[in-house]
TrEMBL record:
SUPFAM superfamilies: CoA-dependent acyltransferases. One of its GO terms (molecular function) is carnitine O-palmitoyltransferase activity. Belongs to the carnitine/choline acetyltransferase family. Gene3D superfamilies: 6.10.250.1760, Chloramphenicol acetyltransferase-like domain (3.30.559.10), Choline/Carnitine o-acyltransferase, domain 2 (3.30.559.70). It is an enzyme of class 2 (transferase). This is carnitine O-palmitoyltransferase. Its main location: mitochondrion. Pfam families: Carn_acyltransf, CPT_N. Residues 184-766 form the Choline/carnitine acyltransferase domain. InterPro entries: Carn_acyl_trans, CAT-like_dom_sf, Cho/carn_acyl_trans, Cho/carn_acyl_trans_2, CPT_N. It is a multi-pass membrane protein. It catalyses: (R)-carnitine + hexadecanoyl-CoA = O-hexadecanoyl-(R)-carnitine + CoA. Residues 11-57 form the Carnitine O-palmitoyltransferase N-terminal domain.
Length: 783
């Protein structure tokens, strides 16, 4: 059998793929079987059937949750036992079933009794499941615990928690709670309008606020109730009244570039570099990602639970994490998700390689993946015409990409190669640059790292893929994620697992390579073949030029704030998130000299298929606090009192958003209904056109136990970030890591004369230290 070699990897793989060959001779047909190829076919089929069986089994387990399949046997045996004891547990139902079976005339009396008992037991079992599921849904509709004083749990809440745990069953899988989660409630129009007016009052002149109040109150009594009726109807019919419209109109119908405007990124560990061998880091990390995907396929990932592992969050967003790509369209994009994918596509020096993930019916081991990556790095071939910058199509405007895809990628080798990219498990870039935190130049190195992950060179990331995994030349890694299929906490959950598995479970040999041995029998990665005409190459260049202008305009400042962290903030008996948000308000006021509409992303995953809601962090209370901080006549005591009031207000707004009583998703959906009905609403039009000049998001740490920062304090993650939402505003992402570190990622645009990310970073650092001093702590207090 012909083995792969460096010069002819494609031909070698073609030979291996042929299971048999035959030739016609004078003596008849000479049939030669390739036992190796037949073995691989057999193992591949075995792997597929095993996966189907696991999905089938998990479907049953999830379908009957919070009961278990074995509980059916218990119920049926219990029913049969009472029947043989001459006790009728069915109140005559079993006898009716028996009489019905009598009409068939093909069963003995004993058989009819058994069948009747089994049918009744099964019906009773199904009824119990439905009762338990509905009871759990009713219990989970209660959110009073969210508004209780922090650290204090009332007796009523403890009783409620106990009931939730009783009805929650044992050993839940990832999707076990989905059918038990309540639907997102539709708030009353008047409540939403009142909350909206309260949020914009500190941002408007008195005359503008009076005008807006008239518009809002007119909407609340005239058009609002009509639109609300349709929205209520949708909420009864659909699983979630927001999510499908949010995905379609906010993400998929956007015609601007995904790069910078929509996609976001995740960074590597801040200080630790497990290995400096690019192929080795790729080998371990890709294997870790695939281990996570296997756990996801088997639903072995535990659902996220709040309040002492009691209240489940929706897991729906995990479904499209892998094997997913956004497909461009002229009017709207679509999301293509494959049930399975057995390959990845790797980009390096302008070439695209297809890498199979399985050999001998199993996942490739880390050392084998490293071997494949090294083969790609060593490949001397040149890019084909138009291939090197092809991915720039995914970085530019959507319409040219959609037209180009339809015209030039609908048939032949271009279609096959594009299918390979879009149907891959995920996309990998072996980057030619070195990135990451450098002690000798921390500021410039982190800013460069952030920009590389956000946009790279505009043609070396496939921005349409759900996940683009990036491995830099010096062994640093990162992730760029498309936004429509899920929000950042879902990607963060994967990323935490990958970093921890890479460092603590897989590890590296002393020479920096992955543990284990290479396997020379594994076929070489194959080059994807393209035939890109001149006309398409011109579209690629045009997209690249516009993407480069956009990327060059991004002013990024990413930095670790290690003066103090969550540990000290909690000693102040305040919410760490509220603390940072008020620091952001103070920093913005010092930076701009004014207040602005502020967006903080909150989640609504307490409800089925929930995604996000907006917390309007700039409130009357936060403005009063900020003004006191810049007023030299105010005492520390006055400022501290106003801080506590503002902090409490922020936490209240956050809780309202999480429990379905936010402002912006409700108004957004009312606006969508108005468009369907072709009615004009001056109020809604003005609300939805207001720019978010300060857009913020906290990246949660969800699996703290994976890192054990007390033992491994240097294994801190840098979090991730996103581009500016408004041309003249800031985008700020932050993550509270352990007890003593907060990482910030600040973005803006050079083209705006009003913004400067580094200047804002300095104001933010000063604001953080000014606020902590109100509590009597020095800026360097950590304990």
């Amino acid at each position: 059998m012909i083995r792969g070699n460096k010069r002819f990897p494609k031909m070698a793989e073609a030979h291996q793929a042929v299971a048999f060959q035959f030739t016609v001779t004078p003596d008849g047909i000479d049939l030669r079987l390739s036992h190796e190829a037949l073995k691989q076919i057999y193992l591949s089929g075995l792997h597929s059937w095993k996966k189907k069986f696991i999905r089938f089994k998990n479907g049953i387990i999830t379908g009957v949750y919070p009961a278990s399949p074995s509980s059916w046997l218990i119920v049926v045996v219990g029913v049969m036992s009472t029947m043989y004891a001459k006790i009728d547990p069915s109140l005559g139902i079993i006898a009716k079933i028996n009489r019905t079976l009598d009409t068939t005339g093909c069963m003995s009396s004993q058989t009819k009794n058994v069948v009747s008992g089994v049918l009744f037991g099964t019906g009773l079992w199904v009824a119990l499941i439905i009762t338990m599921r509905y009871s759990l849904k009713v219990l989970l509709s209660y959110h009073g615990w969210m508004f209780a004083q922090h650290g204090k749990i009332s007796r009523a809440t403890r009783i409620w928690m106990g009931l939730v745990k009783i009805f929650s069953g044992r050993k839940p899988m990832l999707y076990s709670f989905q059918t038990s989660l309540p639907r997102l409630p539709v708030p009353a129009v008047k409540d939403t309008v009142d909350r909206y007016l309260e949020s914009v009052k500190p941002l408007m002149k008195e005359s503008d606020f009076k005008r807006m109040t008239v518009l809002a109150q007119d909407f609340a009594v005239s058009l609002g109730p009509k639109l609300q009726w349709y929205l209520k109807l949708k909420s009864w019919w659909a699983t979630n009244y927001v999510s499908d419209w949010w995905e379609e109109y906010v993400y998929l119908r956007g015609r601007g570039p995904l790069m910078v405007n929509s996609n976001y990124y995740a960074m590597d560990l801040l200080y630790v570099m497990p290995t400096q061998i690019q192929a080795a880091r790729a080998g371990n990390s890709i294997h870790a990602i695939l281990l996570y995907r296997r756990r996801l396929d088997r639903e072995e990932i535990k659902p996220i639970l709040l309040l002492g592992s009691t209240v489940p969050l929706c897991s729906a967003q995990w479904e499209r994490m892998f094997n997913t790509s956004r497909i461009p369209g002229e009017e709207t994009d679509t999301i293509q998700h494959m049930r399975d994918s057995k390959h990845i596509v790797v980009f390096h020096k302008g070439r695209y390689f297809k890498v199979w993930l399985y050999y001998d019916g199993r996942l490739l081991k880390p050392r084998e993946i490293e071997q494949q990556m090294q083969r790609i790095l060593d490949d001397p071939s040149e890019p084909q015409p138009g291939e090197a910058k092809l991915a720039a199509l995914t970085a530019g405007e959507r319409v040219p990409w959609a037209k180009c895809r339809q015209a030039y990628f609908g048939h032949g080798k271009n279609k096959q190669s594009l299918d390979a990219v879009e149907k891959a498990a995920f996309f990998v870039t072996l980057d030619e640059t070195e990135q990451g935190y450098r002690k000798e130049d921390p500021e410039a190195s982190m800013d460069s790292y952030a920009k590389s992950l956000l946009h790279g060179r505009c043609f070396d990331r496939w921005f349409d893929k759900s996940l683009t995994f990036i491995v830099f030349k010096n062994g640093k890694i990162g992730m760029n994620a498309e936004h429509s299929w899920a929000d950042a906490p879902i990607v963060a959950h994967l990323w935490e697992y990958v970093l921890a598995t890479d460092c603590f479970q897989l590890g590296y040999a002393e020479d920096g390579h992955c543990k284990g041995d290479p396997n020379p029998n594994i076929p070489y990665p194959t080059r994807l073949q393209w035939d890109i005409p001149e006309e398409c190459q011109q579209v690629i260049e045009t997209s690249l030029n516009s993407a480069t202008i956009l990327a060059s305009d991004v002013d990024f400042h990413s930095f670790p704030f290690h003066t103090f962290g969550k540990g000290l903030i909690k000693k102040c008996r305040t919410s760490p998130d509220a603390f940072v948000q008020l620091a952001l308000q103070l920093a913005h006021y010092k930076d701009m000299g004014k207040f602005c509409l502020t967006y903080e992303a909150s989640m609504t995953r307490l409800f089925r298929e929930g995604r996000t809601e907006t917390v309007r962090s700039c409130s009357t209370e936060s403005c009063n606090f900020v003004l006191a901080m810049v007023d030299p006549t105010q005492t520390f005591e006055q400022r501290l009192r106003l801080f506590k009031v503002a902090s409490e207000k922020h936490q209240h707004l956050y809780r309202l958003a999480m429990t379905g009583s936010g402002i912006d998703r409700h108004l957004f959906c009312l606006y969508v209904v108005s468009k369907y009905l072709a009615v004009d609403s001056p109020f809604l039009k003005e609300v939805l056109s207001e720019p978010w000049r300060l857009s913020t998001s906290q990246t949660p740490q969800q699996q703290v136990e994976l890192f054990d920062l007390e033992r491994n304090p240097e294994y801190v993650c840098s979090g991730g970030g996103f581009g500016p939402v408004a041309d003249d505003g800031y985008g700020v992402s932050y993550i509270l890591v352990g007890e003593n570190l907060i990482s910030f990622h600040i973005s803006s645009k050079f083209s705006s004369p009003e913004t400067d990310s580094h200047r804002f970073g300095k104001h933010l650092t000063q604001a953080m230290t000014d606020i902590i001093r109100l509590f009597g702590f020095s800026a360097n207090s950590k304990k």
